[in-house]
Amino acid sequence: VYVCGTTGEGIHCSVEERKAIAERWVSASQGQLKITLHTGALSIVDTLELTRHAETLDIFATSAIGPCFFKPGSVDDLVEYCATVAAAAPSKGFYYYHSGMSGVNLDMEQFLIKADKKIPNLSGIKFNSGDLYEYQRCLRACDGKYDIPFGVDEHLPGALAVGAIGAVGSTYNYAAPHFTKMIEDFNNGDHAAVVKGMDNVIALIRVLVEFGGVAAGKAAMALHGIDCGDPRLPLRALTAEQKETVVAKMRDAGFLNAAK
After folding, report:
1. Helices 108-115 + 132-144 axis angle, to 10
2. Are 123 and 91 in contact (CB under 8 A)?
3. Domains in the chain and their CATH numbers?
């Protein structure tokens, strides 16, 4: 499980809130989950504090997005930043969180090649980009030693076709059975079933686009009886009527059945 990422609004939480969230996940998982904890923040001071705290917890790995205001200007700058962060939790693996939302648009293949020499606990990249050519190059970098989970849910079939073996995504929180079925169909060579499975995914993504991904995603958790509350500003909260509409549209798309 990936904690305090985009869906969890980690960037919108205070340092103390993020520490409390991390501790609660560790407690609730009772050692049954591999937890990757996102510790990236706008200030490296906060990022390092969160990463040092993560070092004290029973988790699998830490992860950090690139700073999104004062951005690293080159691959070398990003490597230096990530090396500093990863060193704050040396006993944990480290995943760089490559997201278009950060605006840090650097060559990830070159990042892996250069980081390989400077970050001993580097585990890979959480690859949230639809650039499948770059994704393929990352899979092959450094003799394929790194784990590159794919993070764009609606592009999963394409990622599977070019070598993805793992994925981290927002819609998996409430629609995982659809995607695990898609992976099973892909592995069985049933291309037609994969294409058919995308009908449901497209219906889901339409709802997220219409109402806003984070806000609608929180509302969708009602399919599992979980109240995730509202997003923080500047994201707009949905009205009660809009939340009901989100859940109804996802029921129509078959996601209530998938949740059972």
Report:
1. 20
2. no
3. 1-169 (3.20.20.70), 175-260 (no CATH)
- Choosing from 96, 97, 135, 174, the catalytic residue is 96
Which of 126, 218, 243, 249 is flagged as catalytic?
126
168 annotated as ligand-binding: yes
- Profile the chain (260 residues) by mean pLDDT over runs of 10 residues: 96 98 98 97 98 98 95 97 98 94 95 99 97 98 98 97 96 92 97 94 92 94 92 96 94 65
DSSP state of 118: T
Q: What does the alpha-carbon distance between residue 142 and residue 145 come to, in Å, rounded to a whole number?
A: 6
Three-state secondary-structure class, residue 60: coil
Beta bridge partners of 93: 61
What pLDDT does 256 receive? 59
* Cis upstream peptide for 157 (omega within 30°): no
- Supply the pLDDT for residue 257: 56
Q: Which residues are registered as beta bridge partners of 128?
A: 99
7 is an annotated ligand-binding site residue: yes
pLDDT at res. 259? 43
Please indicate, yes or no, whether the overall pTM of this predicted structure exceeds 0.90. yes
